[in-house]
Amino acid sequence: MEFVNADFGIYLNETDFCTVTDVHFSVTQPRNTAPESGGWNGHHGIDIAHGTENLVTRFRYDTRFVHDLSVDWYVLHSVFENGAGVDLNMDHHRSANYSNLFTDIDCGDCTRPFDSSGSTDHGSHAGSYATFWNIHGTPKLISMPAMDFGPVINLIGGFQRRNSQPGWYIEATPTGHEICPANLHEDMLKNRGFGAWN
User: Fold this and answer.
1) What is the pLDDT of residues 118-146, one digit of tens each?
2) Amino acid 126: pLDDT
3) Report field, pTM of the whole predicted structure over 0.85
């Protein structure tokens, strides 16, 4: 699926068990070149709201949106995987999104991987159990989100170490080491039914 010069790409609203795959965003020419514009060429790329168990896979952004990937109102148990962007952000738009997985994603320049928005009276950006597994890009180490990003979140990969937020699980992989498995969602699917409960 190809989006050229889009302002708003894909909006999954009140969807459950849906898959979005092989999506490419590009522009014919930049729309916002002034430094204060942030270089954005659209508002939302892919946004999920009021849904559960959705999957977004194999996506590529050759441009920047204000919000490239978004989880919004009450989104839970959804996955963004196997994607890349020139300077991708994983927008957590407040409003009780929780337990979502972002895995095996190349954020490119990594100047804004956790830039997020949403109404400030709608709680923290992310609810509990947001998981970021093998998020990578041009820099060897990626800056972690602000301390008030959300409670009980998981960051596994090349993140810059700092004093951890109470309740966060942070596993900063040494430079030059690979995350194994590279894609947590694919690994969980492959090993489904073969765990300790059998």
Assistant:
1) 888 888 889 999 999 999 999 878 888 88
2) 93
3) yes
65/124 Cα distance (integer angstroms) = 22
The domain segmentation of the chain, as residue ranges, is: 2-190
Query: Phi/psi class of residue 90: alpha, beta or left (left: φ > 0; alpha: ψ in -120 to 50)?
Result: beta
pLDDT band at 30 (very low <50, low <70, confident <90, very high): confident
17 Cβ neighbours under 8 A, 6+ residues apart: 52, 53, 54
- Asked whether the CA dihedral 188, 194, 195, 198 is positive or negative, the reply is positive
DSSP 8-state symbol, 37: G
Helical (H) or strand (E) element with 190: helix 184-190
Distance of CA 147 to the CA centre of its chain: 17
Contact 123, 102 (CB under 8 A): no
Structure tokens at 119: 């109404």
Predicted pLDDT at 146: 86
Q: How confident is the model at residue 96 (pLDDT cuts 50, 70, 90)?
A: confident
Number of residues assigned to the chain: 198
Picking from 82, 75, 89, 47, the residue whose alpha carbon sits closest to that of residue 185 is 82
How far, in Å, CA of 192 to CA of 116, rounded?
32
**C-beta neighbour count of 145 within 10 angstroms:** 23
Nearest Cα to Cα of residue 44 among 13, 9, 2, 89: 9
